[in-house]
Design brief:
6-PGluconate_DH-like_C_sf; 3HC_DH_C
């Protein structure tokens, strides 16, 4: 049985543990807070059983069989023993990640792949204290990873191709949808595209063009409908009689004109932003009851969409 060690038992760590177990891997879950990893397993068992009841459990194994593949550890050396792949999921602080990988390298063989779940720290910084950086990469999931399958694989400048290929194969085996970046860049691909959408959405609301509620509908009932199945490149390719080049011949000048009309990067902390915050809070109040209910609904909708995509 091949072993994967997951470092950190928070939301992302628990999700990765479930994803890897769904693919039949033996998963060791580690947390440096005594008892925390064991507590996380209790939560995972409940989630697996609920997913099974809702016919949304991933993989070929039952919930009980998947849970049997999981074990919890408070001792790092024990958690790393026998593993071939390490997925780090500690909180998003550079020094913490650097130190944990420095500790991990002292305890594993030179062929063990070291992967970070960071969403905004580039590999050259995360792995700066690691001696053998050729086996290091970022595997950035999209939250929640169990229902949103995309994972960005981002190499360190020294990462060898075989490490990217092996990680791509692992992610594919467990049912994720891996994409490989050819080199590191701040924000990777997902967050750069997301930032562009956020910036223009913010500007349109700030400038009184559209409401918070309606700009969200532009995505959820418009662009998002097709982007759930095909991306922007294929969308353009299919929206002109002779494909992408024809599309740009027809619409490229208009797109460039609109792009040049975009304003500077918004100041999300300005006094004017308070009206946007207030408008959002009127739609969904920030008390835990309302937020938890919306997150639950989001996850249910994502599960339904994941099932639809799987069936097609």
């Amino acid at each position: 049985m091949r072993i994967i060690t997951v470092i950190g038992s928070g939301l992302i760590g628990r999700s990765w543990a479930m994803v890897f177990a769904s693919g039949g891997f033996s998963v060791k879950l580690y947390d440096n807070q005594p008892g925390q990893a064991a507590k996380a397993l209790t939560e995972i068992r409940k989630q697996l059983e609920e997913l099974e009841e809702g016919h949304m459990l991933r993989g070929e194994l039952t919930a009980a069989q998947q849970f049997a593949l999981l074990s919890s550890y408070d001792d790092l050396a024990q958690a790393l023993e026998g593993c071939f792949f390490v997925q780090e999921c500690v909180f998003e602080q550079l020094e913490v990640k650097q130190n944990i990988f420095q500790d991990i390298e002292q305890l594993v063989g030179k062929d063990v792949i070291l992967s970070s779940s960071t969403s905004c720290l580039v590999p050259s910084n995360v792995f700066s204290k690691v001696q053998n950086r050729s086996r290091c990469l970022v595997s950035h999931p999209v939250n929640p990873p169990y229902h949103v399958k995309l994972v960005e694989l981002v190499p360190h400048p020294e990462t060898v191709r075989t490490i990217m290929d092996t990680t791509h194969a692992i992610m594919t085996k467990v049912g994720q949808a891996p994409v490989c970046l050819k080199k590191e860049i701040d924000g990777f691909a997902v967050n750069r595209v997301q930032a562009a959408i956020i910036a223009e959405s913010w500007r349109l609301v700030r400038d009184g063009i559209i409401s918070v509620k309606d700009i969200d509908l532009v995505m959820s009932e418009g662009l998002g409908m097709r982007y759930a199945f095909i991306g922007p490149m294929e969308t353009m390719h299919l929206n002109a009689p002779k494909g992408l080049e024809d599309y740009m011949q027809r619409y490229g000048e208009g797109i460039m004109r609109v792009l040049t009309s975009f304003g500077p990067v918004p100041d999300f902390f300005s006094e004017g932003s308070k009206s946007i915050f207030n408008e959002m809070c009127e739609l969904i109040p920030t008390d835990q009851q309302h937020l938890a209910a919306r997150k639950e609904k989001r996850d249910q909708l994502l599960m339904g969409l994941a099932k639809l995509k799987k069936d097609h």
